[in-house]
């Protein structure tokens, strides 16, 4: 029994929805009724059945629609996918990782067959059946990173490790929360994190870098991050700010439930074997308020988190404009009763 | 996170004497599957169960990263060391089941380099075996300069010359052949990266000359695993776990801590990676620092120690473990 892939859009008429099963598996990011930065990194190991952690690379009902949206973004702006010349080997590493993981987790949808360096890749949802020579870029229609990330949900940053730092030297970034690969390409870990407030004073980035440069092969790690997006728009990039920025002034008490989306990123970190680089998949999950509040615990908790969020964080996440409207709407769903520990719904 | 890396259950598939000092060991997975892919310069930590002692020593992988049916390492016999290499030479035979770590690379190629200039001394040749295989497979530009004591101790010199011909230059100490280092370092094209692996004296010499000749520090790469040195036994108090332990003369401080049932993080066990860095609560005596991780300032401060390779002499030592 495979996944039933939804036909839906992340632009124009915004027909994106989560099925009831997908609402329950949503990676709700708050384990308590308040939120502050922490180095919330843990080993990326397989989690419970029916959760987004059931497989280390998650494929869900939005797969086909997300890949179609990515193709539209790339057609308009090819610089969303970039790989500096020394990163081709890391691209092959990523191709191997994603093919292996998708074929392992979803054999009914993906098949990888290897005969030495002759590989055959079958992607049934997208109607792809390609045979190529591993390591020979001329045998694929795109570079290895672009080829496989056009077939994998989430953004991917490939970081080169050298001089005790990590460098953003390749990536496929079309579902981002207001940052630009074209702007950050070639920057190191401290440079691309410079705009994040509060965390620098806490020394979080120094500790995080130390941890990441020590990530070992076969031992990936993960963390959750979150923000909010108006309308289920995957591509909230600085390049397209003129398209989505004004959406934030359209939130009214009547349309909060439909327009406001919690946007959660499941970020994972993997050592790449041949290049010794790190790949950083940033998988974006969207859920509209109407869907989220079908779980009463999440409704109560989200109300408390958004209400009490420090002003700097609200500004950084771009919530300022509609926060009062959202908090007012959520408050009606919060009777003040306690919430159970942990992330999951009751 | 747990200590070390993921482990691999392997079987010794071959043992090949290479010359009077060096023996090569081949490992395959016990389950018959392929081993993990690795990058040139990576090492594995080999667990040696020698009676009631367990030693864990790092060795560079020297096979081609393109072939993961087996891993190969080469071990130089050290007759005055703590016995790890002697155990490998005497007790490890084909068919023996062993445990090794996943590969870890602390001596990675910088793939931006326009040219890779490699300098090897003695058994320091092993990481370059894998790196040259990797570069040759992708049309990379490299040049290897290899010094050894005598032609018969030039481990793999013949193989390398056969594979790469004029890209390999050999220097024999007994024939008084020396790398003309200043000339070599002064005549490299822009964008060259320098890699050196060999005895500590060679590494220091090359780093000093490269700095003096204006090579940016980011372009000079080196790897030197310090072997834990034997020494006088000493007592240590572990403040966190409330244990008092004795470090034997042939044992490293890290091994003694582990033998007491405490598992500090580690990776390389050669004073390079920084994982086992430990805070000193108090001490009355003298540290014998052998690592390449802590700064000189750290060493002078008496506040930190790398238990994988460093020792202590004196009345008392209390560590935050």
From TrEMBL, chain A:
<dbReference type="Pfam" id="PF11927">
    <property type="entry name" value="HODM_asu-like"/>
</dbReference>
<dbReference type="InterPro" id="IPR021848">
    <property type="entry name" value="HODM_asu-like"/>
</dbReference>
<protein>
    <submittedName>
        <fullName>DUF3445 domain-containing protein</fullName>
    </submittedName>
</protein>
TrEMBL record, chain B:
<keyword id="KW-0411">Iron-sulfur</keyword>
<feature type="domain" description="2Fe-2S ferredoxin-type">
    <location>
        <begin position="234"/>
        <end position="321"/>
    </location>
</feature>
<keyword id="KW-0285">Flavoprotein</keyword>
<feature type="domain" description="FAD-binding FR-type">
    <location>
        <begin position="5"/>
        <end position="110"/>
    </location>
</feature>
<keyword id="KW-0288">FMN</keyword>
<dbReference type="InterPro" id="IPR012675">
    <property type="entry name" value="Beta-grasp_dom_sf"/>
</dbReference>
<dbReference type="InterPro" id="IPR006058">
    <property type="entry name" value="2Fe2S_fd_BS"/>
</dbReference>
<keyword id="KW-0479">Metal-binding</keyword>
<dbReference type="InterPro" id="IPR017938">
    <property type="entry name" value="Riboflavin_synthase-like_b-brl"/>
</dbReference>
<dbReference type="Pfam" id="PF22290">
    <property type="entry name" value="DmmA-like_N"/>
</dbReference>
<dbReference type="InterPro" id="IPR054582">
    <property type="entry name" value="DmmA-like_N"/>
</dbReference>
<dbReference type="GO" id="GO:0046872">
    <property type="term" value="F:metal ion binding"/>
</dbReference>
<keyword id="KW-0408">Iron</keyword>
<keyword id="KW-0001">2Fe-2S</keyword>
<keyword id="KW-0560">Oxidoreductase</keyword>
<dbReference type="InterPro" id="IPR001041">
    <property type="entry name" value="2Fe-2S_ferredoxin-type"/>
</dbReference>
<dbReference type="GO" id="GO:0051537">
    <property type="term" value="F:2 iron, 2 sulfur cluster binding"/>
</dbReference>
<dbReference type="InterPro" id="IPR036010">
    <property type="entry name" value="2Fe-2S_ferredoxin-like_sf"/>
</dbReference>
<dbReference type="Pfam" id="PF00111">
    <property type="entry name" value="Fer2"/>
</dbReference>
<dbReference type="InterPro" id="IPR017927">
    <property type="entry name" value="FAD-bd_FR_type"/>
</dbReference>
<dbReference type="InterPro" id="IPR050415">
    <property type="entry name" value="MRET"/>
</dbReference>
<protein>
    <submittedName>
        <fullName>Oxidoreductase</fullName>
    </submittedName>
</protein>
């Amino acid at each position: 029994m495979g996944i039933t892939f939804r036909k839906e859009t992340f632009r124009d008429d915004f027909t994106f929805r989560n099925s009831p099963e997908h609402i329950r598996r949503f990676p709700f990011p708050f384990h308590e009724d308040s939120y502050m930065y922490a180095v919330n990194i843990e080993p990326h190991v397989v989690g419970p059945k029916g959760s987004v952690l059931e497989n280390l690379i998650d494929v869900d009902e939005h797969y086909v629609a997300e890949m179609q949206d990515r193709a539209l973004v790339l057609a308009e702006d090819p610089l969303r996918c970039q790989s500096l010349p020394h990163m081709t080997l890391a691209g092959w590493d990523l191709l191997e990782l994603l093919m292996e993981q998708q074929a392992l987790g979803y054999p009914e949808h993906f098949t990888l067959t290897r005969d030495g360096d002759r590989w055959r890749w079958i992607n049934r949802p997208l109607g792809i059946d390609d045979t190529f020579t591993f390591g020979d870029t001329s045998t694929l229609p795109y570079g290895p990173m672009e080829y496989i990330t056009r077939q994998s949900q989430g953004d991917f940053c490939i970081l080169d490790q050298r001089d005790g730092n990590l460098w953003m030297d390749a990536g496929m970034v079309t579902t981002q929360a207001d940052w630009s690969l074209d702007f950050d390409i070639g920057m190191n870990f401290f440079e691309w994190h410079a705009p994040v407030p509060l965390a620098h004073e806490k020394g979080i980035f120094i500790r995080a870098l130390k941890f990441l440069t020590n990530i070992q092969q076969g031992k990936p790690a993960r963390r959750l991050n979150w923000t909010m997006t108006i309308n289920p728009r995957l591509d909230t990039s600085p390049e397209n700010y003129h398209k989505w920025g004004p959406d934030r002034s359209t939130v009214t008490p009547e349309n909060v439930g439909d327009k406001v989306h919690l946007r959660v990123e499941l970020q994972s970190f993997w050592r790449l074997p041949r290049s010794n680089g790190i790949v950083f998949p940033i998988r974006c999950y969207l859920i509209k308020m109407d869907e989220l509040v079908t779980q009463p615990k999440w409704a109560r908790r989200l109300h408390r988190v958004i209400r009490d969020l420090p002003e700097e964080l609200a500004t950084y996440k771009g919530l300022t404009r509609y926060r009062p409207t959202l908090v007012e709407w959520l408050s009606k769903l919060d009777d003040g009763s306690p919430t159970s520990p942990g992330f999951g719904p009751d | 996170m747990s200590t070390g890396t993921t482990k691999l259950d392997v079987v010794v598939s071959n043992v090949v004497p290479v010359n009077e000092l060096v023996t090569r060991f081949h490992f395959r997975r016990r389950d018959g599957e392929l081993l993990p892919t690795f990058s040139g310069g990576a090492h594995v930590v080999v667990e040696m169960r020698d009676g009631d002692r367990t030693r864990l020593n790092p060795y560079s992988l020297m096979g081609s990263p393109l072939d993961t049916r087996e891993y190969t390492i080469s071990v130089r016999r050290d007759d005055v060391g703590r016995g790890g290499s002697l155990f490998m030479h005497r007790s490890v035979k084909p068919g023996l089941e062993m445990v090794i770590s996943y590969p870890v690379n602390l001596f990675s190629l910088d793939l931006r380099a326009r040219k890779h200039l490699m300098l090897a001394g003695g058994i320091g040749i092993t990481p370059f075996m894998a790196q040259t295989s990797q570069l040759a497979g992708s049309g990379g530009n490299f040049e290897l300069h290899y010094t050894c004591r005598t032609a018969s101790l030039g481990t793999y010199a013949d193989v390398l010359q056969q594979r790469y011909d004029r890209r390999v230059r050999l220097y024999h100490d007994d024939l008084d052949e020396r790398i003309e280092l200043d000339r070599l370092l002064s005549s490299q094209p822009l964008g060259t990266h320098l890699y050196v692996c060999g005895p500590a004296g060679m590494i220091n010499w090359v780093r000093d000359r490269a700095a003096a000749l204006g090579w940016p520090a980011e372009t000079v790469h080196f790897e030197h695993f310090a072997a834990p040195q034997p020494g006088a036994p000493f007592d240590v108090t572990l403040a966190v776990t409330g244990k008092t332990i004795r470090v034997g003369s042939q044992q490293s401080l890290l091994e003694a801590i582990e033998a007491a049932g405490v598992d500090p993080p580690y990776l390389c066990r050669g004073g390079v990676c920084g994982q086992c860095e430990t805070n000193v609560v108090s001490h009355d005596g003298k540290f014998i620092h052998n690592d390449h991780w802590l700064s000189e300032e750290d060493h002078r401060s008496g506040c930190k120690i790398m238990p994988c390779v460093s020792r202590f002499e004196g009345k008392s030592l209390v560590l935050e473990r």
